[in-house]
Amino acid sequence: MADIDLANLAAFSAVARQRSFRGAAAVRGVSASTLSEAVRRLEAQLGVRLLNRTTRSVTPTEAGARLLERLAPALAEVASALDAVNGFRDSPTGTLRLNVPTIVAREILPKLVPGFLAAHPGITLEILAEDGFVDVLAEGFDAGVRYDERLAQDMIAVPIGPRRQRFVAAAAPSYLSVRAKPERPEDLLGHACIRHRFTSGVALPWEFERDGAVVRIAPAGPLVASNLELEVSAALAGLGVVYTFEETLAPHLASGALVPLLEPWWQSFSGPFLYYASRHHVPAPLRAFVDWLKGSAKAME
User: Fold this and answer.
1) Are residues 80 and 175 in the same domain?
2) Is 158 a domain residue?
3) Which in 30, 37, 57, 101 has the greatest CB count within 10 A?
4) Considering its fold, how many domains does the chain have in total?
């Protein structure tokens, strides 16, 4: 049997794991036709079909499944070996893929990303902002950013951004001109509230805290959305009370476009963490980002 091209094996592995030429192409940054040709060459060399292809799906054959099972760890070791050499560069190269909440992408990363990329010009940073909790490794990400209550126990966590944050409640003067200000969190049950629902479908209760006492309420109102910009715009238009990250509302509170409500009850919580799998070898781009975060005063503001 002629020597097998490692690139063809990697192409097959990507397609088999994604169950899609198009999905694998997006992950690898090549065209679907390039991957298709690579798999065709591999099948021709091996003399066996590895993938069942239809117009709707791509699935491994029995031979393909057996090859993928043995191949995945070997390819991971090759990638780790090559990346270990990458770590000896003055500035490592490669792609770092992060999955982060939308609030982190909007309020925290803009303060961190320019400095990191300036320090490491050989690294390409790919960021997907979404609020659902995903398995970062299974989805092809190197690391994720989440808040501590949602961190998996087998992950390494590194602080990123402010170490304390707050949720604040506010409404527009036009709304408060016809509705009395709430004095206690329970009063919001009689108000129009603008609620946030995560892409997973979960809508969390609103939590308030004062002198150690925690009050949770499930408010009602005319708008439920999964987009903070829409929620804030609705509040600015006088549609109701919004309760979200202080960073998001700060400019509108400062300008007077929104009026703070229930200030003694605003709840603070721990800031976000960068998390990644606990493993012996960390890809060089991720290691560079972790080291940069630890050494950056901005990351600890």
Assistant:
1) no
2) no
3) 101
4) 3
CATH code of 113's domain = 3.40.190.10
- Do 199 and 264 share a domain, yes or no? yes
How does DSSP classify residue 96?
E
Q: Quick one: 226 exposed, middle or buried, by C-beta within 10 A (0-12, 13-18, 19+)?
A: middle
**Rounded to whole angstroms, how far apart are CA atoms 60 and 49?**
9
Task: With 0.85 as the threshold, say if the pTM is over it.
Answer: no
- From the DSSP assignment, how many helices (H) and strands (E) are in the chain? 10, 15
Give the model confidence (pLDDT) of 99-122 as tens digits.
999 999 999 999 999 999 999 999
Q: Tell me the chain's radius of gyration from C-alpha atoms.
A: 24
pLDDT of 123 over the 90 cut? yes
User: Cβ of 58: how many Cβ atoms within 10 Å?
Assistant: 20
Please give the pLDDT value at position 86.
62
Q: Spell 31-53 as b/e; 16+ CB within 10 A means b.
A: eeeebbebbebbbeebeeebbee
